[in-house]
Structures are given as C-alpha cells and as structure tokens.
Write a structure and sequence with these properties.
alpha/beta, Rossmann fold, 7 helices, globular, binds NADP nicotinamide-adenine-dinucleotide phosphate
Length: 248
C-alpha cells in the first residue's frame, strides 16, 4: 500500500503537485485580473490547488483558464466577501489601489479593503492568508516618493498589514521590491526580514512562486518578509530562507 508521502512524491515527479497541501484545497486569489494575479493563478493550478479567482469584473477573467472558478467581489464592499471566501482553505491577495484619489485609493483599498478581507477571512475560517504588500510599507513620511505621488500608499499598506498581524488569522506578508513582468523561476531570489534594507526589482511571477510556497508552510506562518531578485543566488534556494526569518 503506497504511503501518502510516496503518493505526493510520485505526483510531484509527474508534475501534478509540488506540495502535500495542494490536493483539492481551494485557494481564493483576490486581484486575479491584475498584473500579478494571472501568473499566480497558473502556478497554483500547476501545484494542484483548486483556484477561485476573486475579481471585480467577471468579463476580465475569461483568460484565466477553464478550470478556474470566478467570483465577483470588491474589498471595499464587505458584504460581497463572505460568499467569495465560503468553503475556501487559503486566501492570497494581490489587490492594490488603482488610483491615488478616492474611491479606489490606498486608504480605501490597501487599508480598509485589507481590513475587510482579513475580517471576512476570520469569519470564513481561512487557514492561511498571504498578503502581497510592498517593501517600505508603514513609511509615514509624506515626502517619500510613493507616498507623495500615490495617496500615502506606503502608510496605508502598513496599516492594513498591522490589522492582519493582530487579527488572529494565520498569515504571511510578502513585501516585494519594484515589480517586473518576466518568466518565473529563472533567477535567484532574496528573502529577508522587513528590517533588512533591500532595494531592487523582482518578477511578478516569482512573487507568485513565493506566495504559493508560503501556503500552509509552517516556516512562513506569522512572518513578514522583504523580497527582491538576486542574480548571485541559485534559483530555488530561497525556499530554505523562510526558517531564518523571525516571527513578527
Ligand atoms: N508596481 C510595483 O512595482 C509594486 C511594487 C511592490 C508592491 N506592489 C503591490 O503589489 C500588488 C500587486 O501589484 P500589481 O502591479 O499586480 O497590481 P495591479 O495590476 O494594479 O492589480 C491590482 C488588482 O487589485 C484589484 N483591485 C483593485 N481594487 C480592488 C477592489 N476594490 N476590490 C477588489 N479588487 C480590487 C484590481 O482589480 P481590476 O483588475 O478589476 O482592476 C487588480 O486585479 C499591489 O498591492 C501593489 O501595490 C506593486
């Protein structure tokens, strides 16, 4: 009789799953129609998860693939979130404000929207919420370039992160550097504590690999990380870096 370990190893070898956690569990991807969402949806599908795309407009989700469930919801409208999360095990958010000015601005999306999503995740019993944030989140200085041009986005992202940390929902906060559009898994990546000074860029798809890897990963739970690409590191070596980061 094959053991679970043997079955998972065989499935991984066949490219069917890369995680013992993947089989049949539903991951909700909020922000699935943004620039980071589609690569993440693809990665999760390849790892054997059932993917539910949470989008504002179903018409924009047609290219996500036939196996992807699509639900409409808006993080600024808490009444839309309960149904979108019902029955799901995991939640990953790549949501971000689309304008520096209201209504869909950083205060309403990166702060209040993350609060709404976190509270809905708690009610739904989500086992792990992975939040895509940004290096520098929590910076309250008005003169910092991103704050100046985009409605104090770093300050509001920091407030959203804080709510998640205190919520009791199991979480990981992934703070990438500047985002670029490129193939996943081609370069090395650096993962470090948010107190570590990091400046650089990273592929949106590589952030997707990191967030997928965080799901159900005890070495990632309760942690916030900064991440950028790192030409000197071996591709894939980042997976063992979680353990060295202290819990929040
Ligand atoms: N750009 C950078 O260099 C950079 C660097 C570090 C971190 N980040 C952060 O990383 C995350 C992903 O970045 P990205 O470039 O992939 O973002 P993006 O392309 O702007 O995608 C944002 C997603 O959020 C969704 N969204 C916006 N308001 C929403 C709302 N009220 N309710 C539900 N969904 C909503 C959008 O939906 P629609 O598709 O309907 O518009 C879109 O799918 C963002 O939080 C961003 O701030 C960006």
């Amino acid at each position: 009789m094959p053991t679970l370990k043997t079955v998972v190893a065989f499935a991984a070898a066949m490219g069917l799953a890369t995680s013992a956690y993947a089989a049949g569990e539903t991951v909700v991807v909020a922000g699935a129609t943004g620039k980071s969402g589609p690569a993440l949806v693809k990665i999760l599908g390849e790892q054997g998860y059932k993917v539910r795309a949470m989008v504002r407009d179903k018409a924009k989700a047609s290219s996500l693939g036939a196996g992807v469930e699509v639900v409409e919801a808006d993080v600024t409208k808490p009444e839309t979130l309960g149904g979108a999360l019902k029955g799901a095990t995991y939640l990953i958010s790549t949501v971000g404000a689309t304008s520096p000015a209201p209504p869909n601005n950083p205060e309403n999306v990166d702060f209040k929207g993350v609060v709404n999503l976190t509270d809905a995740a708690k009610t739904a019993g989500i086992k792990h919420f992975v939040l895509m944030s940004s290096i520098g989140a929590g910076d309250t200085k008005p003169e910092t370039m991103l704050n100046k041009v985009f409605g104090m986005v770093l300050m509001w992202k920091g407030k959203g992160e804080d709510h998640l940390r205190k919520s009791g929902v199991p979480y990981t906060i992934v703070r990438p550097g500047g985002l670029a559009d490129c193939e996943p898994g081609k370069v090395g990546l650096k993962i470090g504590a948010i107190t570590e000074e990091m400046q650089g860029r990273i592929c949106r798809s590589d952030v997707g690999l990191i967030m997928a890897n965080a799901l159900g990963n005890k070495d990632a739970a309760g942690k916030s990380i900064n991440t950028i690409s790192d030409d000197k590191a071996a591709a894939g070596a980042w997976k063992s870096a979680w353990a060295a980061v202290k819990k929040d």
